[in-house]
Amino acid sequence: MSDHDILSDAEREAINAVMQEPELPPQKALIVEDDKATRELLAEILQLHGIQCLTAKSAEEALNSVATNKAIGLVITDLRMGPVDGLDLIRQIRESDRASLPIVIISGDAGVRDAIEAMHLNVVDFLLKPIDPQQLIKLARQELGLDSSL
Q: What's the whole-model pTM score?
């Protein structure tokens, strides 16, 4: 360290280390679906379009993943699951330190009341089954900050 340096060598090394290892934004989608075939199909569709996916077969498993994996940047959840349904999952996420996480609901039998409740919970979108794969891909890429090309 010379007489005119403001930073010590240790401070300079610490700054360089931080500058070389930028924190990556969350780039994985978590698919929460109790039906194995649907869960695997949704993951495969997204992965074929460059979207990394994790899966969970229950709300409990999803909550654990969201709490422990900061790479999750989007949750795609089924509405009808047991014992904890999709709306309860969303409520619990909204009350956690990941409250701002974008969430998309998918459902085969949702009513107006479900849609209204979902909007009150600030979901990004509410997709009805059968899912339009192109719509899901576009939505996931947009929410994860990936380019929108398909």
A: 0.81
